[in-house]
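Deviations from the work plan: none for this task. Representative record:
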Amino acid sequence: MHIGFLGLGNMGAPMARNLLRAGHQLTVFDLSEAAVAGLVEAGATAAASPAALARTDVELIVSMLPAAAHVKSVYLGADGLLAHVRPGVLLIDSSTIDPLTAREVAAAARAHDNPMLDAPVSGGTGGAAAGTLTFMVGGSAEDFERGRPVLAAMGRNIVHCGGAGNGQVAKVANNLLLGISMLGVAEAMSLGVALGMDPTVLAGIINTSSGRCWSSDTYNPFPGVLENAPASRGYSGGFGTDLMLKDLGLASEAARQVRQPVFLGALAQQLYQAFSAQGNGALDFSAIINLYRKDAQA
Amino acid sequence: MHIGFLGLGNMGAPMARNLLRAGHQLTVFDLSEAAVAGLVEAGATAAASPAALARTDVELIVSMLPAAAHVKSVYLGADGLLAHVRPGVLLIDSSTIDPLTAREVAAAARAHDNPMLDAPVSGGTGGAAAGTLTFMVGGSAEDFERGRPVLAAMGRNIVHCGGAGNGQVAKVANNLLLGISMLGVAEAMSLGVALGMDPTVLAGIINTSSGRCWSSDTYNPFPGVLENAPASRGYSGGFGTDLMLKDLGLASEAARQVRQPVFLGALAQQLYQAFSAQGNGALDFSAIINLYRKDAQA
Amino acid sequence: MHIGFLGLGNMGAPMARNLLRAGHQLTVFDLSEAAVAGLVEAGATAAASPAALARTDVELIVSMLPAAAHVKSVYLGADGLLAHVRPGVLLIDSSTIDPLTAREVAAAARAHDNPMLDAPVSGGTGGAAAGTLTFMVGGSAEDFERGRPVLAAMGRNIVHCGGAGNGQVAKVANNLLLGISMLGVAEAMSLGVALGMDPTVLAGIINTSSGRCWSSDTYNPFPGVLENAPASRGYSGGFGTDLMLKDLGLASEAARQVRQPVFLGALAQQLYQAFSAQGNGALDFSAIINLYRKDAQA
Amino acid sequence: MHIGFLGLGNMGAPMARNLLRAGHQLTVFDLSEAAVAGLVEAGATAAASPAALARTDVELIVSMLPAAAHVKSVYLGADGLLAHVRPGVLLIDSSTIDPLTAREVAAAARAHDNPMLDAPVSGGTGGAAAGTLTFMVGGSAEDFERGRPVLAAMGRNIVHCGGAGNGQVAKVANNLLLGISMLGVAEAMSLGVALGMDPTVLAGIINTSSGRCWSSDTYNPFPGVLENAPASRGYSGGFGTDLMLKDLGLASEAARQVRQPVFLGALAQQLYQAFSAQGNGALDFSAIINLYRKDAQA
């Protein structure tokens, strides 16, 4: 299939490479010439602009952009995709943005007779390279089935979440819970250790009790508890604090728009904000436990 | 074995019955004559006071009391257990109290040459009746081995958590995390549904993603998501809001004593407090989701 | 002076009338024909669009719009003010918007050789009608002096806050503190009364102690403490909960943009959000005390 | 008048000296011999124990102790004041403790025919030395009138707050609000400055607007805004962070006992806790602004 791909950053570039590996023909665009050159070397064709990309005979377009402002500009701008793409071309936006903007863009696409899916991912740059991402997909069942094989070339777990925008809703809701759970584990582990317990024993008890959660049994923030977690390698790699901060910002903003209180979510956002402001934005988000550990502050 | 048992409430009575069923000889005490009569009918002998119980030839004493004040009074009071019990008798306190009081009582017991275990439980009245409780046990390894067979007559999962007080530490840390996780699930589910997602689809995604936790996959607070959760039977049964509130109070107080911040835990305590003050203290703690659901408030 | 005025809502209309009363010639625009007709009857001239207004010989333009999106559209839109206004005309935006947007618009104005002031107000519709508003003004000292006489026709207290955007900064910072202080007073009064104190005695003590604040001594949220406060007339009139919610949203968003934690501000926003979601958005914001008072919930 | 005084610490010693200066005869007790010796040198008589003090012919006893446990022990202990004091002697406890304990002790005193006042102070060691303390007094109107002249020898502002315990209620409620207001000012000032405003200009605007409060206009936490505030002398002197932390602990514990939510109060407690755990417990509590200021962390 001839596929267009916009946005060749840390996530987009390896995703695009996986589409090439799966045998697809690729036309790509990015503002960075170096990023484009990398993909061209791997077999893709460069387009000079989103409009130029849209005017080729691509059957499907994937975008992977930093934030809602870029998505609106690329899709809805005077010289954007919708102004130039043929009707019927399937549009898949894998950017992580707020659900209401995703729905606004999808509605505009429909008005142009372009079906659209929102398909944000989880799995990080590792999953993007390995082709093991999870895609949370919003859109009609029919459009989902049409897009699924292409997504399957880039990920392992392709989940239909319901209508337009629901991929973003699922991601924002999951990551809101994740950000809170991690803080909960940080508080429970720090308190237990401050009261004299061994962290590995405590984690073992929690992991077989009602406190059990992914942040404890798979990604425990206390150093040494899990050999392969970021906590045991200085909080390098993993899911950065600033990415968690971005997602909590999306959650609290979406909550504001639908007038839904998120008490713990809002406090969590402030705590990651404070931790980032101390210069820790690039550390894995589980490093937030250092806000609590007196020994770690030394 | 001849065992003494103090505190025959909703938890203590079925625990004591399981000791009788296991073939132990039991001498019991409670302020409620009706509670004592029930156990006597089942084969136990009544003692007139903690002191009287302590002066029998019991080899081991189990207590199950409401709060730290009762534990201090029963063990340390002028006419309490320590003033009358023979040296060497093993003392097991299964009450849920703060770790520092547990350690204070254990130290006093040691000074009387009485080994002591703190052994709070999880599993609720259902687990107490079925003999499937989890015991989180603090004390020396030797004392733990000595107490384990008796605890095994009342529970299924007997976990050694380290030295004196660590059973309480494990419980308070786990329940702190549980109280936070449940609020996190409540926020994520409420936000997702307010943004248009189906609650069962959303729970399914969370349960296979990084938001996965016991409060979502085993005890989901949204009605209808899990057939057997309290949420699907009007939040009856289960673990009461006021019990969660008590445990969060223990957590924040223990945190205060060791000067450990628990930001989300303190906010969680206030939210359960507000919910209880609205008259919901007897509902299962997962009903806290009604603080967030506009539809549920109608 | 010939002045243009855009935005004739609850605040803008009485402000415009005060300019007429002061003897200024007025050309006005609003999307609502009824609002325009009211001002025309009072002596103003109607313009058909912002562009048409800009093309008259006005020497100064005042705008009073609901939110940042309207300000950007009216000033920066393809058919907006900046595209049509003569260089040198002084622009004064009295809308309450985020400081960064205010600075973006001011920079665009400067690029058109139009000096600009941001001049949000406090004082409510009562102050707008009486001409007793406070204006918090950002912009150069020279521009401030030029705009001051016009603002003085609409307000009593005209405060220069520094460069462009600083009027918005002052308002957002003050109202962040106000929203927090009111909750602090609500908690202190509710706790004191729950512990058995008379509310008027307690307020009297606070007002002569270190808890003293405007929310206690001038606007006490407990009914009956201050005869003229909204609390003593069923929380009608005053500064609506939804307006406070909007301002806290501006504060937390501005904080996010400059990576500044606002722990209490974020929690305050959620509490007003919860109160608004219960149907109380139109009540004066001091009604937030009803989140705390058990007696008031009956 | 012959007065007994127990507790000659940083606050108690200068208070006792002021009673001597006013011409009263003083019998004193403290566990510290040095503290007692200081007062004896100034003219007081030493008592060997609280019981010995109680058995003299004192007409009135003042106590100034660190916490509720000391108050219970000194008044209610087997060898405490109530077991030995003559009926009719007026007891005044100026310690800062929780209201429920204050009421419990007052009820026990009444049962011994001893009238009692709770009379916590504000004003710090400076006010104690200068005799300018504020006393917040709980007890009957008659007992208040009887105690007032003695209190007036130690303070300037003697406020009757209602029945037994209400002095403590007033103090805890005021200081809850103070702890919150200070954080509100810290957030507003930090946000304003991060957004580019001059701190003195911003404080000036707040102090004439609805954000006005003692923490802003009298005790502003931003360095340089108020020449005489602790912020302008490195946060030395003043009201220590750990004292604020103690008072917020009393507030949240009192709130727990009457099942009253204090959302911001609980979060404030955690923030001062975190700041104290970083080693800042001895700094004036307004130093909490350093949790927010990026520049100050360098």
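Chain D has a mean pLDDT of 95.
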